[in-house]
Amino acid sequence: MYKFPEGFLWGGAVAANQCEGAYREDGKGLSIQDVMPKGIRGKRTESPTEDNMKLVGIDFYHRYKEDIKLFAEMGFKVFRTSIAWSRIFPNGDEKEPNEKGLAFYDDLFDECHKYGMEPLVTISHYETPLYLAEHYNGWVNREMIGFYERYVRTIFTRYKNKVKYWLTFNEINSVLHAPFMSGGINTPKENLSEQDLYQAVHHELVASALATKIGHEINPEAKIGCMILSMPTYPLTPSPDDMIEVMKEEHMNYFFGDVHVRGRYPGYMKRYFKEHNIKIHFEPEDEEILKNTVDFVSFSYYMSCCATADKEKQKKGNGNLLGGVKNPTLKESAWGWQIDPKGLRYVLNMFYDRYQKPLFIVENGLGAVDTLIVDENGNKTVEDDYRIQYLNDHLVQVGEALLDGVEIMGYTTWGCIDLVSASTAELKKRYGFIYVDRNDDGSGTLERYRKKSFYWYKDVISSNGKTLKIDLERQGSLKE
């Protein structure tokens, strides 16, 4: 058995734009998600269209009390969600916030505390106000720092006694791969220069550090972290050239963590900028602002990938945003995401060795097609043993990382209740412990049903990880 630390923050994660719905209710403005009906790889529309599943989501906006009660039944210690920026500032550049939007999150956080559940709040989770994208070109424009600062001051002040754990940006490194979704950058990706892209990155990094500074000033007890899309990269062959390719790929992701934790730009990025004729414009105060470093490092983990210097083998797989060359030794999910539990232990060790900061796994899960059935007691459920196996195998590797000496704060599974996929905008790609009766054609009752994994996770939490199944050979070595 693995010894998870006392106070380990077990829980689950969602994002406002994928679950709340109510996209124009109570003064909310449009976000970039409202014009992305087919997800990341689809074309954006000029205005919201009926085929966008996110406009209704799973109606969490009206059903959050019911859902949080279910999370509490599983024993959640923490619930990760995001604030929809355009609920607080509908266009993003207003001087005064929308009170009804603020009140909704007051009620949501109160409901969490009612069950002894800590909110873990992502400030910006792929939902930049659409107005800021269309009128300012998102984070390419330095004015975004001021708009973001007003937003974070508002929510840090409002919720200082309700929210202890904050994340500044979701998967901040994803802006390199999905500039519109991640950075609200309206310039089409194919027309976006590296100069503008990395200037946008700089603006986000400054804004993130500024948020950390402001958050600590308003509430010195707050714990503020960065959030990175992690995808460990292995060499496709033992060739030294492939290993150098791995180093270059990993630098592109480590860059974001390095700035958040060390407070300055690393030398390898300065070399990259020089060789690609990129000149990052710093305002006089930027260097000092970046020194406001995070309290912890959080990340998503779904899969690993390979890298090679052989151009003929560089075709990327389907995978998450970062893609990557397929690993021939791994199986994959129905959506082409390669399954690699041991990669989670690896990335935990790599981050901890590099940063010596507490780590928080804030996304991990399996997207799969679930079949709703009626069990022997007449209850509707899902026999999702495949999800149980996936999560069990990953949590076993978290246990291994703990034995390695890695400091881990907690673990929140992605999509703890079924929600609309960010990558494909589908509902049939389900992650949750709770089945939501809604289909990709918009049909369904929106009723909630506990899956088999619901009870499995409840047991994992109540036992603090003692019910995880370890392979027999490994179990023997642990006893020794």
Report on this structure.
With 480 residues, the chain is an alpha/beta fold. The protein has a single domain, classed as Alpha-Beta Barrel (TIM Barrel), CATH 3.20.20.80. The protein is built from 15 helices and 14 strands. The protein has an eight-stranded parallel beta barrel, surrounded by five helices. It has a two-stranded parallel ribbon with strand order 6-8. It is globular. The mean pLDDT is 95.
Keywords:
480 residues; alpha/beta; TIM Barrel; 8-stranded parallel barrel; two-stranded parallel ribbon; 15 helices; 14 strands; globular; glycosidase; Glyco_hydro_1; GH_1_N_CS; hydrolase
Please outline what is shown here.
It contains 15 helices and 14 strands. It has 480 residues and is of the alpha/beta class.
Write the layout of secondary structure elements.
Blueprint lengths: L8 E5 L2 H4 L40 H15 L3 E5 L2 H4 L10 H16 L3 E7 L5 H7 L6 H16 L6 E5 L9 H5 L10 H25 L4 E8 L2 E3 L4 H23 L4 H9 L10 H4 L6 E6 L3 E3 L33 H15 L3 E5 L9 E2 L5 E2 L3 H19 L4 E7 L19 E3 L11 E3 L1 H11 L9 H8 L1
Parallel strand pairs: 1-2, 1-12, 2-3, 3-4, 4-5, 5-7, 6-8, 7-9, 9-12
Antiparallel strand pairs: 10-11, 13-14
Protein name: Glycoside hydrolase family 1 protein
Pfam family, one: Glyco_hydro_1
InterPro entries: GH (IPR017853), GH_1_N_CS (IPR033132), Glyco_hydro_1 (IPR001360), Glyco_hydro_1_AS (IPR018120)
Strand content: 5-15%
Largest sheet descriptor: 8 strands, parallel, barrel
CATH homologous superfamily annotation = Glycosidases
Q: How much helical structure, as a percent, in the residues?
A: 25-40%
CATH A-level architecture: Alpha-Beta Barrel
Radius of gyration: 21 Å
Q: Mind telling me the CATH class? A: Alpha Beta
Number of separate helices = 15
Query: What is the fold named in CATH at topology level?
Result: TIM Barrel
Physical arrangement of strands within the biggest beta sheet: 1-2-3-4-5-7-9-12
Order of helices and strands: EHHEHHEHHEHHEEHHHEEHEEEHEEEHH
Name the structural class: alpha/beta
Number of strands: 14
Distance between the termini: 12 Å
What coarse outline follows from CA principal-axis ratios? globular
Average pLDDT works out at 95
How many domain modules?
Answer: 1
- Unreliable segments of 5+ consecutive residues: none
